[in-house]
Amino acid sequence: MSDRSTAGEAAEPSTESVNPVRVDRPEETADDYTTTELLAVAAARQIDDGETAFIGVGMSLMSGILAKHTHAPDCQLVTESGYIGSVPPGVVQSISDTILGVDALVATDQCEIFVDNQRGAFDVGIIGAGQIDSRGNTNSTAVIGDATYDRPKVRLPGSGGSNDIMTSCGRTVVMMRQQRRAFTTEVDYVTAPGHLERPGRREELGFVGGGPAAVVTDMAVFGFDDDGEMVLETTHPGVSVDDVREEVQWDLRVADDVATTPEPTRGEVAMLRAIDPADVVLRGTDYVYEVGFEEWSDTVLEHWEQLRTVQNETDD
Fold it and tell me: For the whole model, what pTM was predicted?
């Protein structure tokens, strides 16, 4: 497994896109990307070439596919439904979506995947969360507030694979929207244990994984110091350190030299939009509701065929 442990060591954007998708000057900085696309790209760069990445659906899946098609062609994507080496040509609706089996190296079952994860077989995992605290403990179970667990203020989707990923993967990347209510002094429920209450606690509990190594948001990228505390590493273009501080409830630690997150390239943005041609995840438009099924399916098929062509050319 990789021994990389900080967000600052994330892969730099490639100076030459490996698999540009029908776009001129793919290596140049994109000039029309959204903050969501920057979030997806920044997370993708956390995956190194040759690593095995345990990913979910939605944004984490898109980041994994992007990494596979750009700077990390030899990474292997693993999904909890049982596919290893999956290269799905686009957004999927659930972990049970059979499109995850496209070009997969192995099709096994959920039990086998989680057993392998508990053995420490996977280098990096990517998860989302509804809340996070300064030590990377995450909550995707319930926002309780002044209510009770049985009748919470907000019932979140639940753990899914996030607890297993956080406890057993070599390191974990958390993807979130930057909101003060979500970056809280204390999570209402610990769904996935980060660095817990003090250094060394994870080891005492027998966790084989290194825990959270990076948090990627639509405003910044954070790492963790030796004490297990979150540290601001980079801010996205146009975002200041003070802007980020305002969206965090605790006294945020800040790196001595906060850099600017590298912007997406034209090739990376083109690849993302090929993965999500109907704007299901990336841009949040109403496209999917404004067209008929035939136009929607033709659009998705065109982009998926384009991605399959790119992948086949790479394999050759």
Answer: 0.87
